[in-house]
Write a structure and sequence with these properties.
With about 375 residues, the chain is of the alpha/beta class. The chain has two domains: about 270 residues, Acetylglutamate kinase-like (Carbamate kinase, 3-Layer(aba) Sandwich); about 90 residues, Roll (Archaeosine Trna-guanine Transglycosylase, Chain: A, domain 4), CATH 2.30.130. It is about 35% helix and about 15% strand. It has an eight-stranded mixed sheet with strand order 3-4-2-1-5-7-8-6, sandwiched between helices. Strands 10-9-11-12-13 form a five-stranded mixed sheet. Helix 2 packs across helix 4.
Length: about 375
């Protein structure tokens, strides 16, 4: 495939994500040889005039190595303690290597709650953009020391796609230890085929992802596909490629066929809708009838109470909720104007009855179109 059309292949701002399996050896200690090569290549891309943002895993792994732990800890406090030891070690190594090429780095640690708040989301965006303007290389990781299960990104694959959306990057390159997306797990199935490009992330494409059984890294192909979904629906192309290939970043940017490229969607979400769709945590579900499904998906209308047939979960007004059809398929998500208790009172009723049923003046819509992101058409 000719990659002259992929991402325009003249990206101005790129996000590069490296996984634990590349940054650390199997025993958890940092792979200095890999890190040095990566830093050299990123520094050369900066010399070419590109803005680069590095999303680096490895804090927990580095901590495990530094503490000589026999295996990856399982409890959250132990992981957080290992990350607290490892994060300083990781940034120290990056600082040392980037300084050799005359570049300044900045450490940014994010949690999901930093993106849930609209104000903090914008603050994070402004900080990254300011650093880039100053010629600094931001190095971003999940703040594993304080992140708990409810607010974790899941892994740095998704974080890299969210960061790309946060700072309007042109391309995400996810470096891992396999060559890209295969039709099956190539380590288990010899007939597995590498997919060079994906124009649309369909159910079949998702079925090719298989969760990792690796005890050092947290992701697998499933989380990389989730990252690809976030990036492409934000209008950003994404590569999955093998970080052990020599000069892999230059080869990708020079248009070589390396790994798997996910094309950005032509109709993509603006920054506010990206924040709604991916920055926040879903707190409940609203089940709608077929008439409401048509109004949302085809007529681009707001969701009215008359189309709601059930409410699941407990949430307050302003929460992010999934909108599902009667078969249970999520068709979108949005910010609700009502609590779950209020919705149970007004479901299947006309908007004119809202005030009488809940005892307060309120919007006519359950979710206004501007606060709604639709996945299905």
């Amino acid at each position: 495939m000719n990659h002259s059309d992929t991402a325009g292949m003249n990206p101005r701002r790129i996000v590069v994500k490296v996984g634990t399996r590349l940054v650390a050896h199997a025993n958890g200690k940092l792979n200095l040889n890999f890190i040095e090569k990566l830093v050299r290549e990123l520094s050369d891309l900066r010399n070419r005039g590109l803005e680069v943002i590095l999303v680096s895993s490895g804090a927990i792994g580095a901590g495990i190595g530094r503490l000589n732990m026999p295996r990856r800890p399982e409890s959250i406090p132990e992981k957080q303690a290992a990350a607290a030891v490892g994060q300083g070690l990781l940034i120290q190594i990056y600082e040392k290597f980037f300084a050799e090429y005359g570049l300044i780095v900045a450490q940014i640690l994010l949690t999901r709650s930093d993106l849930i708040s609209r104000r903090r989301y914008l603050n994070a965006s402004n900080t990254i953009l300011t650093l880039l303007r100053w010629g600094v290389v931001p190095i971003i990781n999940e703040n594993d020391t304080v992140a708990v299960h409810e607010i974790k990104f899941g892994d740095n694959d998704q974080l890299s796609a969210l960061v790309a959306g946060l700072c309007d990057a042109d391309l995400v390159i996810v470096l891992t230890n396999i060559d890209g997306l295969y039709t099956a797990n190539p380590r288990k199935d010899k007939t597995a085929q590498l997919i060079p490009a994906v124009k649309e992330i369909t159910a079949e494409v998702k079925s090719w992802g298989e969760a990792s059984d690796d005890d050092l890294s947290t992701g697998g192909m499933v989380t990389k596909l989730q990252a690809a979904e976030i990036a492409t629906s934000s209008g950003i192309g994404l590569y999955i490629a093998n970080g052990n290939i020599p000069a892999v970043l230059h080869r990708i940017l020079n248009g070589e066929q390396v790994g798997t490229y996910f094309y950005p969607q032509k109709k993509f979400l603006n920054r506010r809708k990206r924040w709604i769709a991916y920055g926040r945590v879903v707190q409940g579900k609203v089940v709608i009838d077929d008439g409401a499904r048509k109004a949302l998906c085809h007529d681009r209308k707001s969701l009215l109470p008359i189309g709601v047939i059930d409410v699941q979960g407990s949430f307050d007004s302003g929460a992010l909720v999934a909108v599902v059809d009667q078969s249970g398929t999520e068709i979108g998500r949005g910010l609700t104007n009502f609590s779950a208790a209020e919705l149970l009172r007004i479901k299947s009723r006309p908007s004119s009855e809202i005030e009488r049923l809940i005892g307060r003046t309120a919007a006519a819509e359950v979710i206004h179109r501007d606060n709604l992101v639709i996945h299905q058409q």
